[in-house]
Amino acid sequence: MRRNSIYVTFIIAGAFAGERAVDYGVKKIWENNNVGKRYEDISVLGQRQSEE
């Protein structure tokens, strides 16, 4: 790498890709550890059961 612009571009692109990879990995770990505990996992929230 002889030019500074190529070096800076490589660093910025690498940081962006690394941030995306870490964010994706942490999100997957978080979702796997909290299965059934999240708001999205509750099928019916705040509704009364119908009397049949």
Automatic annotation (TrEMBL):
Membrane topology label: Single-pass membrane protein
GO biological process per UniProt: mitochondrial electron transport, ubiquinol to cytochrome c
GO cellular component, one term: respiratory chain complex III
InterPro entries per record: QCR9, QCR9_sf
Gene3D superfamilies in alphabetical order: Cytochrome b-c1 complex subunit 9
Annotated compartments: Mitochondrion inner membrane
UniProt keywords, alphabetically: Electron transport, Membrane, Mitochondrion, Mitochondrion inner membrane, Respiratory chain, Transmembrane, Transmembrane helix, Transport
Coiled coil: none
Subunit description: Component of the ubiquinol-cytochrome c oxidoreductase (cytochrome b-c1 complex, complex III, CIII), a multisubunit enzyme composed of 3 respiratory subunits cytochrome b, cytochrome c1 and Rieske protein, 2 core protein subunits, and additional low-molecular weight protein subunits.
UniProt function note: Component of the ubiquinol-cytochrome c oxidoreductase, a multisubunit transmembrane complex that is part of the mitochondrial electron transport chain which drives oxidative phosphorylation. The complex plays an important role in the uptake of multiple carbon sources present in different host niches.
Entry similarity comment: Belongs to the UQCR10/QCR9 family.
Name the record gives this protein: Complex III subunit 9
Organism: Dipteronia sinensis
